[in-house]
Amino acid sequence: MFSAIEMAPRDPILGITEAFNADLNQNKINLGVGVYYDDNGKVPLLSCVQKAEELLIAAPAPRTYLPIEGLAAYDKAVQELVFGADSAVIQEKRAVTVQAIGGTGALKIGADFLKRFAPDAEVYISDPSWENHRALFESAGFKVNNYAYFDAATHGVNFAGMIADIKAMPRGSIVLLHACCHNPTGADLTSDQWTEVIAAITAGGLVPFLDMAYQGFGAGIAEDGAVVRRFAEAGGPLLVSNSFSKSFSLYGERVGALSVVAATAEEASRLMSQLKRIVRTNYSNPPVHGGKVVATVLTTPELRQLWEDELAGMRVRIKEMREAFVVKLQAKGHDFAFVRDQVGMFSYSGLSKEQVGQLREQSIYAVDTGRICVAALNSRNIDIVIDAIAKVL
Ligand code: LMR
């Protein structure tokens, strides 16, 4: 029965890591996947994580099953981080949160949940969006459409196009939005533009699904989360997926969460019962370790402060790399000033697929769309990258 099965294409992002890993060149550079590396080119083990693990090891605990919805302390801490501790949706018990297998797992629980209760709705994602958004919602059974987002001419947001597309969506449509640090473009909305988007979504009876995988990498933890809070205050249904892969450098632990905001506490408890069914039939219940680490850090004041400082350090280093990238290309006669204005880990560099292919011949890996991970640049590799880019331009 397997003989007719065709080879699936490589994943557009993780497939690059596969090709990178297979490259024998010692000086290879991976600007493909969204992973933060420190200035030594290493994925950091944050001190706050290490200290939380020391606390956990000092009080060894058996590995029983977690509840289907995850560790209670984790879910509570995530809710307070995402919506703000004083948020009305928390006080009124209108928000429910389930621990998820990373941000992708959170999106998948949300997609399956929506497919079950809004089977005829269509999903709208930004043009472009994270490659896995389309694949994930399609595999949940949805028709996935684009709304206008990126303007290649300005390297910014085509806001007129975006708002017009949102206003034209049928009521009940699901709109996937990046809460901050848009992946792949690095182009975010201004606060005033968000005001218009929230108004259009509310007036149009649409269902916003906010993906927040990079909280803290834009302007700051609270600043980046502000959009979620504004949507929560606007009333109406809301889904939020968030991830600690990047902000805690816990990629392989797969720690994320899905939060859903209901109209009433009673409705919220019904939603939670359905979310639990989806989790149970997919992977039963989430793993213990990553959730415990994050919960320990978020609820222990010294560790929380340490985390905020370490996250700020990552944010600042990325900004320094953006600046260096612009200045060094400027010195070679190329204007990439727009990279300075982009936020988060990524830049839509404007490099063509052919140019990305030429970079790969020099063992520098980027996504075919021209997305580069600025967080993978460091003081040792940046000149190599700049020279290579200048060569292909
Ligand atoms: C990325 O966009 O590179 C990251 O979110 C990693 C992934 O899973 O694709």
From TrEMBL:
<feature type="domain" description="Aminotransferase class I/classII large">
    <location>
        <begin position="27"/>
        <end position="389"/>
    </location>
</feature>
<dbReference type="InterPro" id="IPR015422">
    <property type="entry name" value="PyrdxlP-dep_Trfase_small"/>
</dbReference>
<dbReference type="InterPro" id="IPR004838">
    <property type="entry name" value="NHTrfase_class1_PyrdxlP-BS"/>
</dbReference>
<dbReference type="Pfam" id="PF00155">
    <property type="entry name" value="Aminotran_1_2"/>
</dbReference>
<comment type="similarity">
    <text>Belongs to the class-I pyridoxal-phosphate-dependent aminotransferase family.</text>
</comment>
<dbReference type="GO" id="GO:0005829">
    <property type="term" value="C:cytosol"/>
</dbReference>
<dbReference type="InterPro" id="IPR000796">
    <property type="entry name" value="Asp_trans"/>
</dbReference>
<dbReference type="InterPro" id="IPR015424">
    <property type="entry name" value="PyrdxlP-dep_Trfase"/>
</dbReference>
<keyword id="KW-0808">Transferase</keyword>
<dbReference type="GO" id="GO:0033585">
    <property type="term" value="P:L-phenylalanine biosynthetic process from chorismate via phenylpyruvate"/>
</dbReference>
<keyword id="KW-0032">Aminotransferase</keyword>
<protein>
    <recommendedName>
        <fullName>Aminotransferase</fullName>
        <ecNumber>2.6.1.-</ecNumber>
    </recommendedName>
</protein>
<keyword id="KW-0663">Pyridoxal phosphate</keyword>
<dbReference type="GO" id="GO:0042802">
    <property type="term" value="F:identical protein binding"/>
</dbReference>
<dbReference type="InterPro" id="IPR004839">
    <property type="entry name" value="Aminotransferase_I/II_large"/>
</dbReference>
<dbReference type="InterPro" id="IPR015421">
    <property type="entry name" value="PyrdxlP-dep_Trfase_major"/>
</dbReference>
<comment type="subunit">
    <text>Homodimer.</text>
</comment>
<dbReference type="GO" id="GO:0030170">
    <property type="term" value="F:pyridoxal phosphate binding"/>
</dbReference>
<dbReference type="GO" id="GO:0004838">
    <property type="term" value="F:L-tyrosine-2-oxoglutarate transaminase activity"/>
</dbReference>
